[in-house]
Amino acid sequence: MRILELMGMSSTKYGGLEKFNRTLMEKSPQNKFIFVYVEDPMCQQYVDDMTTGNSAIELISNKSVIRYCFSVICLILKFRPHIVHFHFGDEKMLLAPFIKVFFPWIRQITTFHSECVLHSLKAKIKCGLYCRCQSKIVAVSKGVQKEIAAFYDNKKLVTSYLGVECDVSKNKEEARRILEIPMKPIILTTIGFDVATKGFDVLVDAVAQMVNKFTPPLFIVNVVGLSKAREEQFMGIVREKHVESYFMSMGIRNDINTILSASDIYIQPSRTEAISLAIMEALHHGLPVVASNVGGIPEVVIDGKNGLLVNACDAEGLAMAMLELMQSPEKRKEMGERSRKHSLNFNVEKGVENLIDIYEKKGVISNKS
After folding, report:
1. CA pair distance 107, 138, nearest whole angstrom
2. Per-residue pLDDT for 343 more than 90?
3. Alpha helices in the chain (DSSP H)
4. How many CB atoms lie within 10 A of CB 245?
5. Which residues pair with 186 in a beta bridge?
6. Which one of 47, 190, 214, 339 has the fewest CB atoms closer than 10 angstroms to its CB?
């Protein structure tokens, strides 16, 4: 089969989704793939890995929606795909009905990677029409599946966790030595691309409340994934709260496994989150998690078992949850062990097998976790 993967996004690092795509390509050598991005992927190693006999990367800018759609149609005429798989981007709302009318033999598949809470009737109708064009609708969590079912309840809809791959070979001492992080502080790590969406401003407020009201153990909050511009925005918030000494920003990185190996607790204070690949990676590294109770996060963080859930935007609740884990090495160890066991449900190979089954029409995916 020839499969056109319309990513509808930029690739800034060799992250979880990039590793999923590489595994997908490697596990189905009988298929040919083209992965379309709106900007050149920033990691050359990813580009090299994906430029093979059965896989290629194409760039189509979405600065003009009309030009983007026209370029995709030209690519369809050239590549003649059996399947078009939509991921991110609003351009898919125009492309899907066009493909349905003019290329009816092409199977359309869509993956909802983000929460899908639609408040207006217009948005529900628009998304419902888009879903009607699809042969299969994949939700990355049961939470997202439930949101889609609220306006489009159909047998086309399935849940399939993407899953992650992790190198957990480094111990904490080795990882901290590589990263030049001192051994004594408790390291709380959070990963995200956007300050508001990932709740990093709430995290700063939580840290400020914690250090002003209590005397926590020595700790550092390590923030990973922000571009230069967003890092400046974030550090401005940190300075406003006078907590500069408690934060370290590492920017966009490809060595996430080393960073997580060096960590003690993983934090995900998101305002919205379909499901977090970063949390999945943290589970594989045996980390306890403190996270917002939104979207699909409760599927990866079982409250009181392998982590603690708090309400989104609840800085006080976030502060108390972080403090609870920081003050109890025993609880961190117990929850970390449960995280490692729970991580078996979020393996990249299982997620890839599910997607290949969808491509090859091999039946219904099991949603057991």
Report:
1. 14
2. yes
3. 16-27, 44-50, 65-79, 92-102, 121-132, 142-149, 172-179, 200-213, 228-240, 256-261, 277-284, 297-300, 315-326, 329-342, 348-359
4. 9
5. 219
6. 214
